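Operator note (shift B, R.M.): manual run for AMP-dependent synthetase/ligase domain-containing protein requested after the automated queue skipped it. Running by hand, logging everything below so the morning shift can see what happened. Input copied straight from the record, untouched. If output looks odd, do not overwrite the archive copy; leave it for review.
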Amino acid sequence: MFRRISRYINIQGNVAKPLMPPVGIMSISTAATAAAASGAVPKGGEARKDYSMSSGSVDVPVLDQLVGYYVNIQSRKMYYKDFLRIEHQAVRWAFADIRKNSEALAHGLLQTGLRPGQRVLAIQPCNCETFVMQLACAKVGALLAVVPHENISADKLRFYLNEFQPHHLIAREWIVVPEVKQGVLVERNMHFWDMIYNVIPELGLSYPGQRFQWVHSQEFFFLKKVVITDHNMNLLGVTPMRKMLVWGPFSYYEQRLRRLSALLHPDDPILALEDPHPALEDKLHITFSHRNCVNAGFLFGNLMGLKAETRFGVMPNHHTDPVGSIVAPFAALTTGAVLVHIHSDMFTDDMPSTASRNYAWRRWRHF
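Run finished. Output pasted below as returned.
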């Protein structure tokens, strides 16, 4: 866990004595150190306020570092502690695993030409690849735009591509979408790659087996890469995500992410989500910065009293709203809790019947 300089102090003469043990995490800036050294501390027994580089003295601690900073710090302090559980993907990752995978994907994004300030468009269901892509884009300094996939169509795909002008498109070959048949809401598997191929026919210009397959689209000239998170290696014009991973180890002074982090700022945008009720007609998406994401998760974790190895679940398909993409993952990241992604199959017909049978079995054993 992170440690913070004691928030409340008691001034007796020139000696500062802590009254409470340090809790939570807090980034100490050089300006706060200079203010304390110059004697700019409250007189008497008043509590000293925390310092924020953006707001000055504040009552609530503000985290002023990049997302990658907290990923690295937590992976050092809680190396083998569980961090992410996704049962339907058989994922049980510790903090060390999430750092290793996010850095491997970040190096792969840099190798394929992604640079700070560029956009990445993700259209896929809730899975571990979406969260790893979010951390990787934060390390690179790119903006990840996550849009809903339930009602995706060719026109909406073309609209998203023209709106964000992404350098990379992250998708899946098959996605599950809701559909109404004879007045009943059912689910069906949609071949999403077929829709992508109809929108971007230039994908057929490449051949299977290429090491890096680039997109040369006349309509979407800004799009350079189409990446799928499935395991089909023979799709034309797309690259599986697992072929993009660049594993270490890297030298401390030769790592590109370390040199790149010096050029980034906590106020740089890293995530764009669709606003279901936009205030203006042309303002359909909201962007969030490093500072927004980290502080939202940190405050939520403190309010809920989350601690290391505390498990909390996120309902399915919440990766397109701030609850599942910002509050929950960054609360687990800043507090050390375990984030559990619940699969949407929990709400199918088989699962409730199984739950009812288990409930009847427990009742029978009770009597």
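Quick read of the result: The chain has a mean pLDDT of 74. The chain has two domains: 9-58, 67-345.
Leaving this for review. - R.M.
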